[in-house]
Design goal:
This protein is an alpha/beta fold. The chain is 40% helix and 16% strand. It is built from 14 helices and 15 strands. The strands form four sheets. Strands 2-10-9-8-7-3-4 form a seven-stranded mixed beta sheet, with helices on both faces. β7, α9 and β8 form a beta-alpha-beta unit. α3 runs parallel beside α13, α5 packs parallel to α11 and α6 packs across α7. The longest helix has 21 residues. The two termini are 41 Å apart.
Length: 391
């Protein structure tokens, strides 16, 4: 393509970053010996009872435009899910269905920022959040987390110090992708108080809330410490809990006053989510608790396989993830994790995500998804350890 044509594009489009994860995926997706642990998804297909709900909807002719905020049945199912999971009432007037968790993030960012504004993003972080901010013409202000013997830590004072007159929001992902860090309830209270006092929004990504390996069944949530009118926008997705990554279906829970604004943003982006997709989501939320619990148990066992498998690998530095389903580790002497991931893929068939994709604070680490087949995880541990022995 002509350079002149590229230069004629918007600054935001020209500078949209390449995905460091997708680079590795594209390099290895056709390998026959592949163990793909690079993406944030399980390896089970969507359960039949969910697919059948979509098929039934299609057969009944639900192929027309539908409610912009989501069909009433799905909004009610999401409201019920919050009540059952967190014992907190979340009214349907606070729910807006979106075309993926990624669109939920994009709409949240669009709702609270304009060009030149700032959003604070602790890192290491899933790269799409910062990209969504930058594509808006705003600035992602990164706040590095620190890796310590007890695990990853986010310093509250450092977070607050990053707030400027241009700050419009704090993005907080807990449990965290990629580190597995889980914010304590006390930390969430502190961040909420900061948001109230400083007049900034919180964009709360609690997608992995049920993948929690502490004493409580779920990770601490802003839902249990906030009021319905607090400046918190929750983004979520059907992808992780119910093996629906390919369905591209998510939602936002926000103060009810934002309802019409969010509906307008949906209208002028996708004009709504297909009704048959939404019927599938209703089935998942209403009848998918057993499947979800199986997913959580599978991930917990996968976590155990990795912790045990790498326990005696002196060259690997990592902490036990408290939540989500990623093992984020560094290797002594490895500073170019992109090259490491490519070499590991080429020589062993194990696909990992390089830490360079998650910001400077994680650039010396690599991410492994353990919500996968246990035999593949055991094989991956063996292949990685053998690879490290070869130097």
């Amino acid at each position: 393509m002509s350079t002149d044509l590229i230069n004629a594009l918007s600054h935001e489009a020209r500078n949209a970053p390449l995905s460091g994860i997708i680079e590795i995926v594209n390099a290895g997706r056709l390998r026959k010996d592949l163990i793909p642990l690079w993406a944030g998804e399980a390896d089970l297909p969507t359960p039949d009872f969910i697919c059948e709900a979509a098929i039934k909807s299609l057969k009944e002719g639900e192929t027309f435009y539908t409610w912009q905020r989501g069909i009433p049945e799905l909004r009610q199912a999401i409201s019920d899910y919050y009540s059952q999971t967190y014992n907190v009432p979340v009214g349907v007037d606070r729910i807006c269905v979106t075309g993926s968790g990624m669109q939920a993030i994009q709409l949240a960012v669009a709702a609270v920022t304009s060009a030149g504004d700032e959003v604070i993003v602790p890192t290491p972080a899933w790269p799409n959040m910062a990209a969504a901010v930058e594509l808006r013409g705003a600035k992602a202000v990164t706040v590095p987390m620190s890796f310590e013997a007890t695990g990853w830590q986010l310093d509250k004072a450092r977070l607050e110090a990053a707030i400027t007159p241009r700050t419009r929001a704090i993005f907080l992902n807990s449990p965290c992708n990629p580190t597995g860090w889980v914010a304590s309830e006390e930390f969430l209270k502190d961040v909420l108080q900061i948001a109230r006092e400083r007049g900034v929004w919180i964009i709360a990504d609690e997608i992995y809330g049920q993948f929690h390996y502490g004493n409580a069944k779920t990770a601490p949530s802003f839902l249990t410490i906030s009021t319905p009118d607090d400046p918190v926008i929750y983004v979520n997705t059907m992808s992780k809990n119910w093996a629906m990554t390919g369905w591209r279906l998510g939602w936002i829970a926000a103060p009810a006053q934002l309802g019409q604004v969010l509906e307008n943003l949906v209208q002028y982006s996708t004009s709504g989510v297909p009704a048959f997709n939404q019927r599938a989501a209703v089935a998942a939320l209403q009848n998918g608790q057993d499947f979800l619990e199986e997913q959580i148990a599978k991930a917990a066992k996968g976590r155990e396989i990795l912790l045990n498998g790498f326990a005696s690998a002196d060259s690997i530095q990592a902490s036990a993830p408290a939540g989500a389903f990623y093992y984020f580790f560094s290797v002594d002497g490895v500073t170019d994790t992109r090259r490491f991931a490519l070499d590991l893929l080429e020589q062993t068939g194990v696909g990992l995500a390089p830490g360079t994709a998650f910001g400077d604070a994680g650039s010396n680490f690599v991410r492994l998804c353990f919500a996968r087949r246990h035999d593949h995880l055991e094989m991956a541990v063996d292949r990685i350890r053998e690879f490290l022995k070869r130097g």
